[in-house]
Amino acid sequence: MSEDQKERLQKVIAQAGIASRRAAEDLIVNGRVQVNGEIVRTLGTKVGPKDQVAVNGVPIEGREKLVYYLLNKPRGTVTTNHDDKERPTVVELMADVPERVYPVGRLDYDTTGALILTNDGDLANQLMHPSGRVDKVYLAKVKGIVSAEQLEPLTRGIKLDGRKTAPAQVAIEWVDKNKGVSMVRITIHEGRNHQVKNMLAKVGLPVQKLKRERYAFLDLMGLQPGEHRKLTHEEIKKLKAGDYRNRRRK
After folding, report:
1. 208: domain CATH number?
2. Which residues is 230 bridged to in the sheet?
3. Measured between alpha carbons, how far is 151 from 202 in angstroms, rounded to an integer?
4. Domain shared by 111 and 232, yes or no
5. Which residues does the UniProt record annotate as the domain RNA-binding S4 (predicted)?
6. Which of 8, 37, 152, 172 is exposed most, by the fewest CB atoms within 10 A?
7. Which one of 51, 83, 108, 122 is the catalytic residue?
């Protein structure tokens, strides 16, 4: 068998729906993966269709069908497959999906909105890689009467933890002077932890509520909190092609 017919071990594990590509790499490094009865710890290892791969002693029976979903994540759920604190997870909301899916990226426990779940490790890595520059649009309810001047530094980039953020797109949705709160729309393509909250806090606007209303061109139209839908063939094709432009589904 030629090398062209073989695939990296972590990719095979991810495509089998066992774990994300990144988690599969951890499984390999920690000695929990066997190939033809031998423990393999090298990430560059390639395997073919005739190789027997086992994870935690359990053979991979074959590759699952690749599936792609968009979830409207509700508050009070964690973006992971398992939670040590036994909090509700986004995966538990996908109980009707027979395949083993995992979230692409993260949303905070109290953040709501658009989240992709899939068992396609290649696409997940593509979307999460910084070079992808996938736009993520958030609506943030903040404490304070916001002004354009206050938001202007965000459009140039500000330092968080010693590293400058990429320029963001920002807009004021509304201001309630009586209650002393405002709604801000912010678009970023990075994925640092708590990035939107930290950016707004940096300019004196603590976030009270945060919702991701769009991921690439995918919006939440027709989805109530906790609901999910399959991505269409056209949507999947566009994501894989790196076409993240904002065009509504017809």
Report:
1. 3.30.70.1560
2. 69
3. 10
4. yes
5. 7-64
6. 37
7. 108
Task: Give the separation between CA 117 and CA 72, rounded to whole angstroms.
Answer: 11
List Cα–Cα distances, 246 to 50, 83, 134, 239, in angstroms: 43, 33, 11, 11
Q: Does the residue 250 lie in any domain?
A: no
Look up residue 116 and give its amino acid: I
pLDDT of residue 122: 83
**Structural tokens at position 153:** 């530094």
With respect to residue 86, please indicate whether it lies within any of the assigned structural domains: yes
Active site residue 108: yes
Token pair belonging to 159:
């330092």
Q: Which residues contact 197 (CB under 8 A, 6 or more apart)?
A: 108, 140, 207, 210
At 28, which amino acid appears? I
| Interval 54-86: pLDDT, tens | 999 888 876 668 899 999 999 999 998 888 888
Q: What are the phi and psi torsion angles at 159 (to 5°)?
A: -85, 130
